[in-house]
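Problem 12. The chain below contains 436 residues. Write out its predicted structure in token notation.
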Amino acid sequence: MTPATHRSHTDDLLSFINAGPSPYHVVASAAQRLEKAGFRELRGTDDWTGTTGGSFITRGGALIAWYVPEDAPPRTPFRIIGTHTDSPNLRIKPSPDTGSAGWRQIAVEIYGGVPLNTWLDRDLGISGRLALRGPGGTTTTRLVRIDEPLLRVPQLAIHLDRSVNDGLALDRQRHLAPLWSLGAPEEGALLRRVAAAAEVDPAGVLGWDLMLHDIQPPGYLGVEREFVVASRLDNLVSVHAGVTALTDVSTGVDRPSYIPVLAAFDHEEVGSGSETGAQSPLLERVLGRSVTARGGGSEDWSRALSGAFCVSADMAHAVHPNYAERHDPDHHALPNGGPTVKVNVNQRYATDSAGLALFASACERAGVPWQPFVSNNAMPCGTSIGPLTAARLGVPTVDVGVPGLSMHSARELCGADDPGHLAAALRAFLGEAVHP
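Solution.
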């Protein structure tokens, strides 16, 4: 990629992030891009027999997309990009209307590993989905998004509590209730406001998956605008790169030697243990059906998996200039130095030497720099969907990611060139071609 191409890719990433305040919006946005590239949505109840070309399925906050060339035999191996759509945040409880001392507030739960102080004194909107009553006992869902400064978690003035951060740690649920109005708690007030935004009758709302998001838009930072600052970089950088790589490969001149696949899971930040998480059989079932849809049997399925490979793409830690001692002294990843290859011998990351070599080769073909990453051995190491996918499918997996700062914060930072570097490397990984 040229510098101009990198910036164009990152500009598009900012639009993608802005369109995805919740996992459900991320899936909807990714689906629109896939459809524009000629992919078609399949449902689990459809007949998939003979399907070729680009296809995808959605389930809540998860999406699986794949591209099958016309003449690909059922045994064709898969090349998989694994990502996730969710980010740590504050999620609204089923009975949300609460308050104290003359203030109306909203009851929330903490989702994932949230640095609590980053959510204080920010203007917050609401996004997610509503579950609606349908005809004949059926139900439907509707996306909802309120990009207004509707809520705020006010920090206690330092004059009133010199240890305010300690207080949050001791009783974080009560102190994190955002305020949104004056007056006594009023049952149903939030539901009415959200239903109006979704243009539905509050009486028809049976449930919801609602969360708060910072309404400040993503943008650039630095003297040369060399950094990106945004909410949900973890892991929309990787989802966007995966969608870009898959659509590019599907519309390219050369036929790929593999079946390129994008798996964007939900609930990674809380362990992936759901029907839409990496521990579920969702990806396994989709890939299996794609084999049988082309007339394959168990032998073809086994051969397709035996030749498969997965790149698990998630954010990584750049070395922090104020806390360099928290990082491995010999592995200081920096923004705009290319994606990192994450290694942990205790299998918190699934990378081994063969996986590292394969991804390094993809970077080389794409003209992309890359950096090795190892966590400080004196500290607990994070993990990703890589080991889960490797264990579930028995497929070799390499963990990679764009290095950034302020991971899990309400507003994160990465290099402006690295999203394009990652997309180019993933494109080379998916699209290793058979030339005529």
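Discussion. The domain at 89-214 is CATH 2.30.250.10 (Aminopeptidase i, Domain 2). Students who got a different answer should revisit the alignment rule from Section 12.3.
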